[in-house]
Write a structure and sequence with these properties.
Strand order of the largest sheet: 9-8-7-6-10
CATH architecture of the largest domain: Orthogonal Bundle
Bound molecules: fe (ii) ion
CATH class of the largest domain: Mainly Alpha
Order of helices and strands: EEEEHEHHHHHHHHHHHHHHEEEEE
Low-confidence stretches: 57-66
CATH superfamily of the largest domain: Hypothetical protein af1432
Largest sheet: 5 strands, antiparallel
Radius of gyration: 21 Å
Structural class: alpha+beta
Number of strands: 10
Helix content: 40-55%
CATH topology of the largest domain: Hypothetical protein af1432
Mean pLDDT: 82
């Protein structure tokens, strides 16, 4: 292994260590073969030095014609496989813990509940690459537990980006884990229904906020967490439920969970909808985010989330495939995409949009 300047990189060299940005986003995983796309990604993220395997660089040069997307390489990395296994295990633990809360008077031990999820960040050295991994974990169709863990992870990332204290980050992560606890009491037939809910079923589903609060209200848990369970569907403009609260009346942790919850719900496969492209969700957030959500939360989220797609391969509505090479800060949902030898600036080509990350 040796440390070299990014300017000295030759195609075919292989990363000996994960490469992270200063704010802990995974840029490229260990084992990545450095092709022009990967090298451009390093430049885009202002990385100056990387550790490479110096022994087999020449041999790899010959094989460097094999091009794989960042997402595919990430999915094949050991780090991602470990993350996926840990997540599946944590989902089972969470299911057991939440059901126990329902059936017994035992208090949720909030610290121990969040511990497995927080350890995912430890294993990933301060949480680097978590967003990349979540984006690559979209095959699950789980109404409560996997969703709760994703919301906990995304909320944790938002809290870090907002520079919250360690204590607050832990509390916010726990709130993410338990935010939908009330769904334990909602009939499975409603949670897993593949067609649209009737107005009555929809009203029943909405009761999960109050039911969750009832379940936790007498337990020895941080009141912010209880309020997050009650208020995570409230919206800044009063259009949410169950109380129609506005702005500051909604506790800060619920304002973070609200953004993480809706982003994860839309971009995941669900019983009643296919995953929506993250860029579509970002576009919707750009359009009405400041009306519905807390300004600090939504702006922090948008500024960070779009950049996690840099150098990802995407499919466009005109069926072309290309690579995201520039995120325009004015139009986060409309980056510049390189398709073959041409560059499509989606902020100018409003007739084309990104349909999927591939
Ligand atoms: Fe919910």
């Amino acid at each position: 292994m040796k440390l070299i300047s990014v300017d000295e990189i030759q195609q075919g060299m292989v990363l000996a260590q994960n490469v992270y940005t200063l704010d802990d986003q995974l840029v490229l995983p260990k084992g990545t073969m450095l092709d022009p796309k990967a090298i451009r990604r390093l430049h885009n993220y202002n990385i100056f030095n990387v550790f490479i395997n110096d022994d087999d660089a020449k041999e790899k040069t010959i094989k460097s014609s094999k091009k794989e997307s960042f997402g595919k390489r990430l999915k094949e990395s050991r780090e991602f496989q470990d993350f996926k296994r840990a997540l599946e295990k944590d989902a089972k633990l969470l299911e057991t813990a939440l059901k126990k809360t329902f059936t017994s008077d035992e208090a949720i031990k909030s610290q121990s509940l969040a511990a497995p999820v927080l350890s995912l960040f430890d294993q990933n050295e301060t949480g680097a690459g978590i967003m990349d991994m979540i984006h690559n974990l979209r095959g699950y169709d789980d109404a409560i537990y996997m969703h709760s863990i994703s919301v906990a992870l995304i909320s944790n990332m938002i809290a870090r980006w907002m520079r919250k204290s360690d204590e607050e980050i832990k509390m916010i992560t726990t709130a993410g884990l338990v935010h939908d606890i009330g769904k334990i009491i909602i009939p499975q037939s409603i949670l897993t229904k593949t067609s649209s809910l009737t107005p009555r079923e929809n009203e029943t589903l909405k009761t999960h906020t109050r039911l969750g609060y009832q379940l936790l209200k007498d337990k020895d848990i941080d009141p912010h967490i209880k309020n997050a369970v009650l208020m995570h569907h409230e919206r800044n403009d009063g259009s949410g439920y169950p109380l129609g609260l506005m702005g500051e009346k909604i506790v800060p942790v619920a304002r973070i969970i609200a953004v993480a919850d809706i982003y994860d719900d839309l971009t995941s496969k669900r019983a009643n909808h296919e995953p929506v492209s993250p860029f579509k969700v970002i576009e919707a957030f750009e359009a009405d985010g400041l009306i519905k959500y807390d300004a600090d939360v939504i702006l922090t989220f948008l500024n960070h989330i779009a950049n996690t797609f840099l150098a990802n391969k995407v499919r466009l509505s005109n069926n072309l495939e290309g690579e995201v090479i520039y995120i325009n800060p004015e139009y986060l949902a409309r980056p510049t995409v390189k398709c073959g030898d041409s560059f499509i600036d989606l902020s100018r080509r409003k007739d084309i949009y990104i349909t999927a990350i591939i």
